Amino acid sequence: MPWWRRWVRQLLPNRTVRTCCWYHGGDWHKVNTLALEVLRRSREQAVDPDDMREFAVSHAAAVGTTDWETEALATLFCLGDAIQPDRETRYINGQHRAQAMLDAGVRRTVVLHHIQP
Q1: Bridge pairing between strands 90-93 and 84-86
Q2: What is the reported pTM?
Q3: How far is residue 33 from each of residues 3, 86, 88, 91, 108, measured CA to CA in Å?
Q4: Which side of the chain, N or C, has fewer Cβ within a 10 Å radius?
């Protein structure tokens, strides 16, 4: 996607749900607001990375999200499904979700970075 289109989508976010696929089928703005809250709370409670998905799903249940929102939130914190940017290939995982978020004008999300010891 050209830089100017991303810029326009950030200025004028499109919050309408599209029916083209699962990734475009929900409110990524709400999911990312929840994701940032889950990340903040997990840091406060020192949640182990392997337990993040369950922690996120529990948080989603506590605030009454839809099934789509719960699943979308879970994918952001699942070690096997998380969005993983990569310098060489651009993405290891999560490119379609990231594109759906960009299309919706989402400005921030959580991603997985592996840190080598």
Answers
A1: antiparallel
A2: 0.82
A3: 24, 24, 29, 22, 9
A4: C
Q: Please tell me the distance from the alpha carbon of residue 41 to that of residue 47, in angstroms, as a whole number.
A: 9
Beta bridge partners of 84: 93
Question: What are the DSSP calls for 69-112, one per residue?
Answer: HHHHHHHHH-TTTS-EEETTTEEEE-HHHHHHHHHHT-------
99, two tokens: 């594109």
Contact, 35 vs 43, CB < 8 A?
no
Cβ–Cβ < 8 Å for 101, 109: yes
Residue 92 banded pLDDT, cuts 50, 70, 90:
confident
Q: What is the pLDDT of residues 49-80, one digit of tens each?
A: 899 999 999 999 999 999 999 999 999 999 88
- Residue 71, burial from CB neighbour count under 10 angstroms (0-12, 13-18, 19+): middle
Which residues, 6 or more positions from 112, have their beta carbon under 8 angstroms from its beta carbon? 79, 82, 83, 84
Name the nearest CA neighbour of 26 among 80, 70, 64. 70
